[in-house]
Model the fold of this input.
Amino acid sequence: MKKNNYILKFNLCLTIFFIVSLLSIYSAKTISLDSLGNIFVKQIIYYILGFIILLISYYYKKEIIKYAYLWYWGFNFLLFILLFLGVSINGSRCWLILGPFSFQPSEFMKISLILVFANILNIYNNKKDIKTEFKMLTKIIIIFLIPTILTFLEPDTGVVIIYFIIMISMILYRGINKKWYYFIIITLIILSTIISYMYFFKNELLLNILGKNIFYRIDRILNWSNGNGYQLENSLITIGSAGTLGFGFNNIPLYYPEASTDFIFTSFSSTFGFIGNIFLLIIFIIFDSSILSLCNNKIKRIDKYLLIGIFAMITYQQIQNISMTIGLLPITGITLPFISYGGSSLFSYMFILGILLRIAKDEKIFFN
Done:
């Protein structure tokens, strides 16, 4: 029996992610806040703990799927608690502080949504009539709206977008009657028009409905479209001046906030240059394409939905994170999977990697 190529690819990519993460963080720590402590050593510890989480999700995948709703409601409760007990960092109450440890519930809320959506779509997979699809979509939208509202109130718009990407991707993969597409498009157009009108002509009303942070969020988008903001400007200068091979370790020429988290790609680019960027992008493509390839094999229906949700979440975060550092997309505070510093983000992705490895192992997919 030949070795499973999927498991080999996932493990190889994880090893490279680990090395890239440590090298980038080691270089970024020279311009990171002292309050973060020794982020290089912490990231090693996070990876060790993350590997334990990977083993748990690998060996208990069935139980995790079985209790998907329990996970979902548990993390919704934590999101609710954040509104009262969460510590405000950079204007958002996204973190629960437990002594020396901090935890971001929204990182695992993303996974909970994937698990619950997969269960719902699996139940309604063979039922294509309008009435049944209405029930299915109603359940999915309610499941989506609860954490979306709680996360929006933190506020954390970037994660809300990820929730939406996960939901839409999984629904599109399942397929629905084309009438629903027309309804969704029209609804989005109407909502966008109403919000735009209130932003320009009814500021007070918009403020009362969506909260005092809404103008800050919209201004960030407008600043991105105008190419403004010193964080983005310094990121562009750093990446553009890194050349073919980069500046090397501890030689980042300019300061920019979140060098080890949201802007870790800038730190990596500064250290390794254009060649390093191409190498990392190739590894991302190998990892992502392996998920899609696994999904195209004869595996369980529910596993297919899980893979699509995971693929949508990871690829969107990769595209969003890299694009915001080079000015192609707005800055939304999205981390780079497996690379950015931080326990909550890394733990969530090690968790889903365990699920990926289990799907590959359970289905016994071997090929030349």
User: Anything to note?
Assistant: The mean pLDDT is 85. The radius of gyration is 21 Å. Residues 5-362 form one domain.
